[in-house]
Amino acid sequence: MSATDDNTGGSPGARLLEVEDLHVEFRTRESTASVLNGVSYHVDAGETLAVLGESGSGKSVTAQAVMGILDTPPGFVTKGSIRYRGEELLTATEERRRGLRGENMAMIFQDALSALNPVYSVGFQIAEQFRFRRGMSRRDAMTKAAEMLDLVKIPNAKQRVKEFPHQFSGGMRQRAMIAMSLALDPDLLIADEPTTALDVTVQAQIMDLLDELRRERGMGLILITHDLGVVAEVADRIAVMYAGRVVEESDAESLYARPAHPYTEGLMASIPRLDQKGEQLASIKGLPPNLAAIPAGCPFHPRCHRAQQECREKLPELHELGAGRRSACHFAEELISSD
Amino acid sequence: MTEPILQVRDLVKHFPVQKGVVFKKTIGHVRAVDGVSFDLHRGETLGVVGESGCGKSTLAQVLMRLVQPTSGSALFEGTDMFGRKSAAELRRLRRDMQIVLQDPYTSLNPRKTVGDIVGEPFEIHPEVAPKGDRQRRVQELLDIVGLNPEHVRRYPHQFSGGQRQRIGIARALALKPKVIVCDEPVSALDVSIQAQVMNLLGELQSEFGLSYVFIAHDLGVVRHLSDRVAVMYLGKIVETGTEDEIYEHPQHPYTQALLSSVPVPDPSVRDRRETIRLSGDVPSPADPPSGCRFRTRCWKAQDICAEQPPELAVRLDGGEIDPSSEGHPSACHFAERHGHVIS
Ligand SMILES: Nc1ncnc2c1ncn2[C@@H]1O[C@H](COP(=O)(O)OP(=O)(O)O)[C@@H](O)[C@H]1O
Ligand SMILES: Nc1ncnc2c1ncn2[C@@H]1O[C@H](COP(=O)(O)OP(=O)(O)O)[C@@H](O)[C@H]1O
Ligand code: SF4
Ligand code: SF4
Ligand SMILES: [Mg+2]
Ligand SMILES: [Mg+2]
Prior knowledge:
The complex is a heterodimer of chains A (339) and B (343). By secondary structure, chain A is an alpha/beta fold. Chain A folds into two domains: 11-104 and 186-272 and 281-337, P-loop containing nucleotide triphosphate hydrolases (Rossmann fold); 116-185, no CATH class. Chain A has helices at 59-67, 94-100, 112-115, 122-134, 138-151, 157-160, 170-182, 200-217, 228-234, 252-257, 262-270, 309-313, 332-337; strands at residues 15-27, 32-44, 48-52, 75-84, 87-88, 105-108, 188-192, 220-225, 237-242, 245-251, 319-322, 325-327. In chain A, strand 11 and strand 12 form a beta hairpin. In chain A, helix 5 crosses helix 7. The longest helix of chain A is centred in the middle third of the chain and has 18 residues, at 200-217. The radius of gyration of chain B is 21 Å and the shape is globular. Chain B contains ten helices and ten strands. Chain B has two domains: 42-66 and 84-226, P-loop containing nucleotide triphosphate hydrolases (Rossmann fold); 244-343, no CATH class. Classes of the chains: A alpha/beta (339), B alpha/beta (343). Chains A and B meet through helix 7, helix 8, helix 9, helix 10 and helix 11 of A and helix 6, helix 7, helix 8 and helix 9 of B. The complex binds adenosine-5'-diphosphate (ADP) (2 copies), iron/sulfur cluster (2 copies) and magnesium ion (2 copies). One iron/sulfur cluster is lined by residues 252-253, 292, 294-295, 298, 300-301, 305, 310, 332-334 of chain B.
């Protein structure tokens, strides 16, 4: 397993991040949307946790809360805990959190162009971190920036370090953002849909790069995505989110072999496969719920083909199934034991 | 086989690249579509795949006569689509070919009700639905695409992304077209919703005998819906064949690389796949490489690839052209006749 096959990141397998029962509300004058309703997941050093779910399920908001960049107001953490190496972040000072960002945890986004500043060269933006956080001279910082571009395999890094974001292709910009996020050598990287805007051949390059960097540096990687193919290729563990909760958590192989939640099952049946020409796709009926009016009982019940009376009344807790698997379905045990 | 409903030959669309603010000077051309030929048969789906910028949307816009081609021809049921036409021929073309676009958010007028949006084509073609009958016809269309007919007076923002795509499909169906050009119709949708819309497109095709030109960058989506597939790279078709020929026996290095890049949703085959990784990005269509346009990323490239553009033709192993032999056409000097999926 890749969680243990590497070295540099200190103690491999050490618990880096623990999110527990996290609740976030977005309050507007008209309504309050319960965007996170008890998210729990954890990441260890050297491993890749994929956070999988459709848009609006709360993947990005969870990441923003972890990074301390939640849009407040309108977003408020109302309950829960976020611990980095055991240290509670929700009660930490803003100064402490700023210190952690970049140095200990970093995040990259889908849209590299809007994350980069168009009026400064790519190199300047990377170098800034070395100047202000490491006290380096302008020249040394630029040299380090070029090294970072080289690390993410941008050809002619020494020349390209002086270029501006618009002179980079989509794939190169994503590489530059990865370089920037890794400048201060964080041990946790959150990648929020890093390849969603890229073509498939470039996506493959970027995923290879992220995987290689994680391995080399013993980083913990949280990969947020809605792509079940990408997840299958790189994830050690997977947390599936629905309506602001983790509904299933599992190692990758077991999840694909036998999902323990009907939502996961439905997602897998919905993807058109490359290796077969199907007839009807077994889609999930209906739509995700309005987060200002989440259904009682199991939030998935209006769309679930297995729903029973109990599901309309009682919220299923995310519970242990053994072997590191958890599910928030009343019938999870039956799902994984039936044929 | 009967005559194809659509025959496209040597279609070219170049966009001028201009410089200067007041005095515009043309300094080059973006060769968005650069010699594309294909047939579309009745009731079939031709999938068009390729990475962004390869000219898929331009092809769709030219087919819909929303932009003028630079050269080339297209026959719709035997009628020249781009030449001078009588008013009656024009009306017929406008009815018989419709388009569904990727972005249901921007392609629907936010200030119009769904009823107005879906019924709009009847204003221009009243012969399809007489005035008194329109409301009923619009509701019928909403029902066909799986929307609640009672929602005719709602506005687009009151619908989800998938539902808005259904509205776009209902509008495209209003005039009972024969061909629908779908430009990335499910690309913006989440997988569960994407599956619903793909199923709908499949059902509509069998119910109404529609022919689709189905454009997408997702290779799984294209395989699922297509009978035949054309793979595009920098404005050209590099390989075309049946869905089985393209996905099981790809001959062109680009097709092979594209298929190999798609992640497989099965962790148990991870690290056991032998994958092809292309380096770099697609070159600019304003300045495509000489000879074979794929050569800057191709691991098989030889000197000849920079000198001679390979034509799209049926080839023997090693790339020699032999139109008499069985097989599907590809545009590579070194095409593998018995191509296979490398994964
Ligand atoms: N700044 C914001 N203001 C109001 N609502 C927001 C904001 N950010 C996110 N949300 C809402 O929170 C929900 C979850 O969003 P997000 O975490 O971005 O989903 P995901 O990343 O899974 O697609 C969505 O319904 C979204 O509309
Ligand atoms: N109206 C236009 N003017 C100039 N260039 C254009 C125009 N429309 C498209 N292009 C260019 O043509 C090429 C093909 O674009 P497009 O057909 O949209 O590709 P795709 O749909 O495959 O992503 C791109 O390089 C694009 O920038
Ligand atoms: S708890 Fe009931 S409704 Fe929810 S996923 Fe399980 S079976 Fe379906
Ligand atoms: S013609 Fe040459 S460069 Fe082009 S695809 Fe074939 S081998 Fe590659
Ligand atoms: Mg998101
Ligand atoms: Mg397009």
